[in-house]
Every structure is written in structure tokens, then in C-alpha cells.
Amino acid sequence: MEKREDKLKEVISHAKEYGYVFPSSEIYDGLAATYDYGQLGAELKKNIKDYWWTAMVQMHEEIVGIDAAIFMHPKTWKASGHVDAFNDPLIDNKDSKKRYRADVLVEEFIEKYRDKIKKEVEKGRKRFGADFDEVQFLATNPNVKRSQEKIDDLEDRLSKILGADDLEGLKAMIEELNIVCPISGTSNWTDVRQFNLMFATELGSVAGDASTIYLRPETAQGIFVNFLNVQKSGRMKIPFGIAQIGKAFRNEIVARQFIFRMREFEQMEMQYFVRPGEELTWYEYWKDKRIKWHKALGLGEEYYRYHDHIKLAHYANAAADIEFDFPMGYKELEGIHSRTDFDLRKHEEFSGKKMQFFDPELNKNYIPYVIETSVGLDRMFLAVLSASLKNETLEDGSERAVLSLPPALAPYKVAVMPLTRKDGLPEKAREIMNELKFEFNCQYDEKDSPGKRYRRQDAIGTPYCVMVDHQTLEDNTVTIRDRDTMLQDRVKVDELHSIIEGKVSLKNLLKLG
Ligand code: GAP
Question: 264 and 230 in one domain?
């Protein structure tokens, strides 16, 4: 089986080779953890956004979308708690001069016990074959139980230390566990310090007028501060939602793993405003709805799992992540949070403006409670790309790299090709493409042998290739080749539209969600 690190490297190099993702400002040797989306990446990203926006806004009459500015009044971030508490604990190794997130060092240490459990399970499965009962094995095997006790103990201690902002305790834990720097191999650590993740800049060019503002670290606050504007101008009634897609910025201490953790990234967030007391019902509703949206892509149910938060942020009364099995293992893809009335209440306090809704059925005013769904667009991109990239050995022994992207998300829906560059075939191919391109993003390709052209389209994930040959000139039929089965059918040119539409329409996904 392919190693996970190899898979990530393969995804990165495929993404670069075919114009999906490039290191940013590469001619100047790149900028750490910053990436540019290329010609195909921009299309894939746009299609993911369309899928999200259509599912959230178009399919829900009670949800509307906005596009708020990245810059916001500095008081916003005081009210939301980001100025005082949007920190990560960092620690430096004095020998390697490398910087780490102190909590992540401990989490990675805990992860080793999880790996031990996985290995025991694999051994058990081999030993007991078809009789293997994983649930019973996990509950009774002494090695597994020992590892699980260790995990529970360490997680409990870490959670208490983080909850109390006990930076000395965190350093003591790192020393006690004898965690060493992976580069220097030493445990020569500095003290742990808090590091605020917001990027600050100055507004205004005259020094006296300048004031510190922040690049938003989440899009959500643009929604909260517009709650009243949208509610009143859109005559919205509770429950209702406001959705937004946009850039967010965080000065991550350790930004790595390709586009998984970046300093500039995009979020797709929705705040759903509900009656106080009804929030946990809506929380369950959105948990279920969002995982269905992900699974409708057809990448495989096994890629997804929930991770319910045990330790909750001070403003939340329930929270869960939808995790995805990335090449680096299961990691957070989306967060679903029951944020109570914390944000609106704080904005009411800091702005002096009432952030309330008059509920005609209850005949009273209240600050609504909020359920938030927040998914990283770049993480969605990585999830889709890594699960779709496959290397297949064909019956004749040859290899092909295929990107079996969900057809609705593929950058090009169809490639139109003349069999040869003569006899009027290119003209006919262009004529067909000129009709199709009103509905579908198409690529025209006449260079190299048909086999090579098919491989190129497989590698970029184009669901269909249409080949125009001499028979086309006689009876107006073409062959259409399916990316996944590689089977070719001869069909009438007039049928192309409905065949392609049937495969690539977003409707196929939306009906499942
Ligand atoms: N408004 C809630 C919020 O921002 P979060 O869990 O900090 O919650 C939500 O972020 C989502 O944004 C995450 O699930 C992840 O998909 C994405 N995200 C967060 N930090 C990121 C980063 N540095 N790079 C890429 N995506 C990130």
C-alpha cells in the first residue's frame, strides 16, 4: 500500500504539473505556506463554491448570501474576543531555532498511542481472520486498554491546562513526556508564549489618522455585524440563515501540509439564527445536513467521520467537526458550532445597538441563538483532489493517472477532438464544441495520438471525450468516451447535450443532499 506521505507528495506534484495549484510567487522561490490556484484549480474552486452556494442559498428559501468587506471596524474583533483570546501557544527549540505549537507537540505525542492501537487491531485482524470482532477486541485487549488509558489521561490533562491558559503547565508537560524537537533531537525548549493569530495593518496614509485594523480571521463576524441589516431589508423571520464565501487570514505558527493549513485561505460559512432553546435541535439538523452534502460527492462514505468536541469554546454549547481522511490522516474539514447568543450579545454590548429580533408568534424580543456551519474551501479542494487521484494499471499492463473528480466539479466537462487534423474534421469538431460551450466548459484538443489525448484528459479529470471522425461527416454521429469506464459509445451529435448534462449536472448532487 502506498505510504501516506507519498500520497501527499503525489497530489502536490500532480496539482502543479496540470495547472491546479502552484507555490505562490515561485520565481522568487515561493512564500511559505502560500499557494496560487492555476487555470484548472480556479475552475475546480469555483465549482466547489457553486455547489456550496447552491445547496445552502438556492435550495433554502430561508437562507440568503452576502459578501462583506475583509476590513472591519477594529471594535468587531474586541467584541468577538479575537483581540484578547485568538492565540496559539508557541514554543521554540533553542538548538534548531524551530518554532512549534506547544499544544500540537503534545497532541502528536498522544497520536503515537493511537497508532499503537491501530497496529494492535491490524495484528488482531490477521490472527483471528473472519472471526475478528473489533469492538470486543478494543474493549478487552490489554495492550489496547493500556494505550487508551494513557490517551484519556493525557487528553484530560492537556484540556485542563489549555482551559486554564496554564503556559507553565504546558511546558512542564512537554518536558515530562520528554518530547524532543524532530530537527535537533533535543528538549532544549524556551518558555511557552501566547501568539495572536491575527494579521494587523494600518488604515489611512497620514500617520496621525492611522489606526490598527485586522485582516479578518473568519468570515463569520461580517455576518454577525450585518444581522440587523439583512433581517430588516430581507424581512427575514426566525429561523433564517446568512451565508458567505470569502477570504480569511491567520498568522499560523506552523503552516504546512500543502493547502490544508495556510495563512491566507477561504471559508464558506453560514450562521443560522434560531429561537433560544431550539438551538440543539437545529444543531443536530445541520450536522446531519452537512455530512450528507459532503457524502453526495460520491468520494466514499469511509472518508468522513464526526469528531464531537468534549472541551467547548466559552461561547459554544455544542460543537463537532466533520473530519476527512486526508493523505495525512483524519483531520478537520468542517466545523458545526452551536454558538449560543454570544456573538450578537457581545456586538450589542460593544456597539450599543440592539441586536434583537421581534418574534410575532411569541410576541417578544430576544437575541437569537446561532448555529454555524464553517467549511474551508481550500480543505474541500484538497479533500476532493486527494480522494480523486488514482493510479490504475490497465488490462494491457499500461498505467494511467486518472482524476476521477465528481463530474459536477470537474474543470472541463468535455474535451472535443478531431481524429486527425485534416479532411474537415477539425472544422466539424469546432462546430460541435461551439454549440456545447454555451452550457459546458469544453476543451478542444487535436494534438498527439487519440490515446495520448485521452490520458491527458483523464489526468485532469474531464468526464467525457468526444471524438469526431470520418463517419461523423457522413451520419452526424461521434464517439463519446467515459473517463471512469473508458468505454466508448457512438451517439448522435444531437444527443450529446443531454448525455453530458445527465452526468455533470449539480442537480445530481443536490438531490442527495
Ligand atoms: N467561524 C468559525 C471558524 O472560523 P474554525 O474551526 O477556526 O472556525 C473553520 O475554521 C474552517 O476553516 C475549518 O474547519 C477549516 O476547514 C478552515 N480553516 C481554518 N483554518 C485554516 C487554515 N489555516 N488554512 C486552511 N483552512 C483553514
Answer: yes
478 and 502 share one domain: yes
**At 469, which CATH number?**
3.40.50.800
| CATH assignment of the domain containing 146 | 3.30.40.230
Residue 412 CA to residue 500 CA, distance in Å, equals 11
Same domain as 255, residue 140? no
Whole-structure pTM value: 0.90
**Ligand 1 centroid to residue 376 C-alpha, Å:** 6
478 lines ligand 1 (CB under 6 A): no
- Amino acid symbol at 176: E
Kind of pairing between the strands at 414-418 and 442-444 = parallel
For residue 274, list its beta bridge partners: 369
Q: What digits encode the pLDDT tens for the residues 169-198?
A: 999 999 999 999 999 999 999 999 999 999
**CA–centroid distance, residue 305 to ligand 1 (Å):** 17
Indicate whether 361 and 440 sit together in one domain: no
Same domain (yes/no): 242, 375: yes
- The answer as to whether 391 is a domain residue is no
Atom of ligand 1 nearest to the CA of 255: 23
| Same-domain status, 338 and 238 | yes
What does the pLDDT read at residue 206? 60
Angle at 266 between CA 88 and CA 483, to 5 degrees: 125
Tell me the three cell numbers of residue 353: 445597538
Collapsing DSSP to helix, strand or coil, 420 comes out as coil
The residue with greater pLDDT, 309 or 265, is 265
261 lines ligand 1 (CB under 6 A): yes
How much is the average pLDDT of 283-310?
95
28-63 per-position pLDDT tens digit: 999 988 999 999 999 999 999 999 999 999 999 999
pLDDT digits (tens, 9 = 90+) for 102-136: 999 999 999 899 889 989 999 999 999 888 898 89
Ligand 1 pocket, residue 265 CB under 6 Å: yes
Mean pLDDT for 368-395 is 96
Q: Which residues contact 272 (CB under 8 A, 6 or more apart)?
A: 63, 239, 240, 241, 282, 286, 370, 371, 372, 373
**Do 284 and 357 have their domain in common?**
yes
Contact 333 CB / ligand 1 (< 6 Å)? yes
Range of the domain at 29: 2-71+214-386
Ligand 1 within 6 A of CB of 103: no
Tell me the pLDDT of the chain averaged across its residues.
94
